[in-house]
Amino acid sequence: VNSISGEISLTGTLARGGFYDMKTMSGDITLNMPASVNFQVTAKVSQGGEVDTDFPLKYTGETPDESAAAIISSGKITGTYGTGTAPSTINLVSFSGTLRLRKM
């Protein structure tokens, strides 16, 4: 899903092993998912955008030993959530919006 300035929103469970690629220039991206999901996520923001997650991620990016606050404030997170069984892959990019991962 691509958008220039609109918001992107997905509510519901993810397909086992599914691939979700969402990009926007100035809108927000919000994923509302049940706590039982399994996923790998890469989220990138710049120009004052932010990443806001309800899911306690296991960070797997370039700096997995840093604090969660330091990783999220850097504008890029790479991590996993869940049991790891057939995880979905989520790629989120926003130039100036907020990326939200919400539990429903």
Give your account of this protein's structure.
The chain is mainly beta and about 100 residues long. It has one helix and ten strands; from the N terminus they run E-E-E-E-E-E-E-H-E-E-E. It has one helix at about 70-75, and strands spanning about 1-5, 10, 20-25, 30-35, 40-45, 50-55, 60, 75-80, 90-95, 100-104. The strands form two sheets. A six-stranded mixed β-sheet has the order 1-3-9-5-8-7. A four-stranded parallel β-sheet has the order 2-4-10-6, with no helix packed on it. The protein starts with a strand and ends with a strand. The model has no long low-confidence stretch (mean pLDDT about 85).
Unreliably modeled segments? none
Spatial separation of the terminal alpha carbons:
22 Å
Order of helices and strands: EEEEEEEHEEE
User: If helices are DSSP runs of H or I spanning 4 or more residues, what is the number of helices?
Assistant: 1
Widest sheet: strand ordering? 1-3-9-5-8-7
Rg result: 13 Å
Shape: globular
